[in-house]
Specification:
heterodimer; A: Beta-Lactamase; Alpha-Beta Plaits; 4 domains; B: Muramoyl-pentapeptide Carboxypeptidase, domain 2
């Protein structure tokens, strides 16, 4: 093989074959320049092979055009590697400008990566925002659910309780865990089963079902509950089960009850006012009217007027009036709750109608009953002074207005005449039964003034008691008996009689004068006489 | 020593006003003519080693001023490199490529393609870019606050297609 053929084969092997062509190198030992070239070619080949395997860490110490080009390629690839690491760390502003179409595609990829990351950031930001909103919303709902007095129960389609707000403890005394775990739905709140049944029976629209029930708390207290059950739906409108909001309406029920009782009292008052004012003249109409109003009006009854006076209150006027009205309402309810008794409010007191077993007249029983009313007032309202007047008896509604007036008159007379008593029967009022209607008129005062005026003035002026002496003389006692009662000598009484006759300018021996003066003295006891009249 | 020629950025002047027709650009030949003539005279007067040192120091001063007046402030190394790359291209100085970055060790391998000082020069047997070495050292010093040793390991003048520099922090 000549040298040319050797070099051709050498270059051929260097370019195409793996490894060092050692058999040829031995033949070139005498040509160190060619051997140096072979070494450099092998170095470039190894460097190129390394780059082809991704090894950019090699150092090529050779200089020259070929080596320079390879090092430029290495430099670009190293820079590309660095740029890629920068991109990987989030620097999407890196751009490649030295690798032709690859650069264009790579740069587009970076832009899309940037866009994707921005989209992801926006998406994540939105997710975080929604999560925060959700957390906030959940916190708010939880805060509301945990602090509200209403109880919330969520049941699934199988009617299993899946949530119960902690407010159940305040409302019913049970814990939410008890309620959920022990399946107390039907045991503790049986009405929920009824509501679920009603929900199932409804068609279209799933309108909520409202119930008001009395319920026993764990501690035994009975309370009123309002339960609103509706179908629970998710955001897409799909049924999730049943939602029930339960609240304590005991106070509202009590208020409603008070209102109802107040209404009934008002209706009853209006009826009796009409009855006592004579607006219901026909008896059958009155009975029918009472029946329509739910008032059981008996055929035989006793009639009372309970007069009530405050002992004085520390409350201001408005509060005192409110308190008085409350007391009055309570008292009327207490009286009405007694057997066969109807009570209603009248000016300055309470009217009471108590059924009698028959028409036979039992004054003693009436007085006993009246005393029991007085005791009831004393017991319930120690601050109230009570007096009661009992009307005379007439069958059914005959003269009912007059009877009630008599009951009122009995109180008026009794308070003046029998001050130690609290119960007064009209039948015991004697001549006052006749005098009392006249006592209400202005003439009564004129009459008393005319008959006794000078004597009243004399007593007032001279600190004497001639009017009392006159009453005793007119009572039918002899002058001696009057003297005994008053611990005065007979002559003194006689002198007083003469002085009375002189002052009044009358003779007490005249029956007519005696009647006139006796009437005036009786009237004086039940009316207020103004001394200047 | 009283200084007469201390460098200030202002001394670069207002080119827009001063060269309304010719503008800011100049032929590279003119730039290289001035630089190589300086180098020639410096070598003649102070010797090769001293001339190289003076060129390095000049480049270093230029690098610091370049950073202070054109890069101004960078929030991170990546930001610094990015701005530097763009500014070097904008000024027609060269295309900077980062080949290796080891921030922990403070070592960088940097390539400058189409370098203003040497690209296209005839092949010589030595690295030529002493001014570039100083320039890179000045830039890194201005950004990091640390001094750097920069050495050119490949150069157009030695037959390579790019100028490659190894920069290493000097631990004082």
């Amino acid at each position: 093989m000549n040298q040319t053929e050797t070099i051709e084969l050498l270059l051929h092997d260097l370019l195409r074959k793996r490894g060092k062509p050692a058999f040829l190198i031995d033949e070139l030992n005498d040509h160190p320049v060619i051997l140096q070239l072979i070494e450099e070619l092998l170095t470039i080949r190894e460097f190129t092979y390394g780059i082809s395997n991704g090894d950019l860490s090699q150092n090529l110490s050779m200089k020259g055009y070929w080596a320079g080009a390879l090092k430029a390629l290495q430099s670009n690839l190293r820079h590309l590697t660095w740029q890629t690491s920068m991109i990987a760390s989030g620097d999407f502003n890196q751009r490649i400008d030295f690798m032709g179409d690859f650069s264009a595609s790579f740069n587009i990829m970076i832009q899309r990566l940037k866009q994707a990351e921005e989209n992801e950031k926006t998406y994540m930001s939105e997710i975080k925002k929604r999560e925060a909103q959700l957390r906030e919303s959940e916190q708010k709902y939880r805060l509301i659910a945990e602090n509200m007095d209403d109880m919330i129960v969520l049941m699934d389609d199988d009617r299993k309780v899946i949530y119960c707000s902690p407010s159940i403890e305040r409302l019913l005394g049970y814990t939410a865990a008890d309620f959920i775990e022990l399946s107390l739905t039907e045991q503790v709140l049986p009405f929920l089963g009824i509501q679920l049944g009603k929900m199932a029976g409804q068609e279209g629209g799933d309108p909520p079902v409202l119930m008001e029930v009395e319920q026993q708390r764990k501690d035994g207290e009975i309370i009123w509950l309002e339960s609103l059950m509706s179908t629970a739906k998710d955001e897409e409108g799909q049924n999730m089960g049943f939602l029930c909001v339960i609240r304590n309406i005991t106070q509202r029920k009590l208020a409603e009850n008070d209102l109802q009782q107040s209404y009934e009292r008002r209706i009853k008052n209006d009826f009796f006012m009409k009855l006592l004012n004579g607006d219901l003249e026909i008896e059958s109409d009155a009975y029918n009217h009472a029946y329509r109003l739910g008032i059981q009006l008996p055929n035989h009854f006793s009639l009372y007027f309970l007069s009530l006076n405050d002992n004085g209150s520390s409350l201001n006027e408005v509060n005192a009036l409110e308190q008085r009205q409350k007391n009055m309402d309570v008292l009327i309810d207490q009286l009405t709750n007694q057997e066969a008794t109807i009570a209603w409010e009248v000016p300055e007191g309470i009217g009471i109608l108590s059924a009698m077993c028959d028409s036979s007249y039992h004054k003693t029983k009436e007085i006993q009953l009246a005393e029991s009313y007085i005791d009831l007032v004393a017991l319930s309202f120690p601050g109230l002074q009570a007096h009661i007047g009992i009307a005379d008896y007439f069958e059914s509604l005959t003269h009912v207005a007059l009877r009630f007036k008599h009951a009122q008159s009995a109180v008026r007379i009794g308070k003046r005449i029998w001050m130690q008593q609290k119960v007064y029967h009209f039948d015991d009022c004697g001549v006052y039964q006749v005098l009392i209607p006249f006592a209400d008129s202005d003439e009564s005062e004129v009459f008393v003034k005319k008959a006794l005026g000078p004597l009243l003035e004399y007593d007032q002026k001279n600190q004497t008691e001639l009017v009392d002496t006159l009453e005793k003389i007119l009572s039918g006692l002899s002058l001696k008996e009057v003297g005994k009662q008053t611990f005065f000598h007979y002559k003194t009484i006689q002198n007083r009689k003469q002085r009375i006759e002189s002052i009044l300018n009358v003779s007490l021996d005249s029956a007519e004068v005696r009647m006139m003066l006796g009437t005036a003295i009786h009237l004086l006891k039940i009316i207020q006489v103004k001394t200047d009249l | 020593m009283t200084r007469k020629y201390e460098f200030k950025w202002d001394i670069l002047g207002d080119v827009v006003e001063g060269r309304p027709n010719l503008g800011p650009m100049v032929h590279i030949e003119a730039y290289r003519l001035m630089q190589y003539c300086f180098r020639d005279i410096l070598e003649k007067n102070f010797g090769t080693e001293r001339a190289d040192q003076l060129f390095f120091e000049s480049g270093q001063l230029a690098g610091v001023q370049f950073y202070k007046n054109l890069i101004k402030e960078a929030s991170s190394f990546n930001d610094f490199i990015k701005t530097l790359q763009a500014t070097l291209v904008d000024k027609g100085i060269g295309i900077l490529r980062m080949e290796e970055v080891d921030l922990e060790k403070g070592k960088f391998v940097i390539s400058i393609f189409e370098d203003l000082d040497c690209s296209g020069l005839p092949e010589l047997d030595y690295e030529f870019c002493r001014y570039d070495e100083g320039f890179i050292a000045g830039l890194l010093e201005a950004f990091t606050g640390h001094r750097f040793h920069v050495k050119e390991i490949d150069c157009w003048c030695t037959g390579d297609r790019t100028c490659r520099f190894v920069a290493e922090i000097i631990n004082d």
